[in-house]
Write a structure and sequence with these properties.
It is a single chain. The chain has one domain. It is mainly β. Helices cover 0% and strands 45% of the residues. The chain is built from no helices and eleven strands. The chain is globular and about 40 Å long.
Length: 148
């Protein structure tokens, strides 16, 4: 059964999700993680993250769906300077616009920040990865996309 909650790593430190309800963590290495989105039953608009109502037609007749785990890189940039207060991860880091097969384009961290290794249109795979450690040494994890 996939997990949407916290768990422990091999080192005994707790893994804490950056935000509940954004993604499912696979229960085994044979499964892929998935983002959690929503799809309108009226107009079929797909959004991420999931929402209680449709931003397109304003219907509340939406269903939760799993997105990904693969996508295509639409555009990217690298952040090489200190960012606004609140970001605790490493610098530099890559950020991309990723097109998912369900027809939604999202902003996501990339596991790669070398522009020579990133190409618009390349295939990407969703991964759950450490974003930073909190003051107690717990891994704060979120989703990223890595080149295939």
């Amino acid at each position: 059964m996939p997990s949407t909650g916290n768990d422990s790593t091999n080192s005994g430190n707790q893994r804490i999700l950056i935000e509940e309800g954004l993604f499912l963590i696979p229960s085994s290495s044979a499964s892929d993680p998935h983002l959690i989105g929503s799809k309108c039953r009226n107009c079929e608009e797909v959004v991420f993250p999931r929402q209680a109502g449709c931003p397109n037609c304003c219907s509340e007749n939406v269903e939760e769906i799993l997105l990904g785990p693969k996508g295509k890189l639409y555009s990217f940039t690298n952040v090489n300077r200190p960012v606004p207060e609140g970001y605790k991860g490493p610098i530099p880091y890559g950020v991309g616009l990723v097109d998912l097969p369900e027809g939604v384009r999202i902003v996501a961290h990339l596991t790669e920040n070398d522009p020579e290794k990133l190409k618009v249109g390349m295939d990407l795979m969703l991964v759950i990865d450490k974003l930073f450690e909190d003051p107690e040494g717990h891994e704060i994890v979120g989703f990223k996309f890595k080149p295939l």
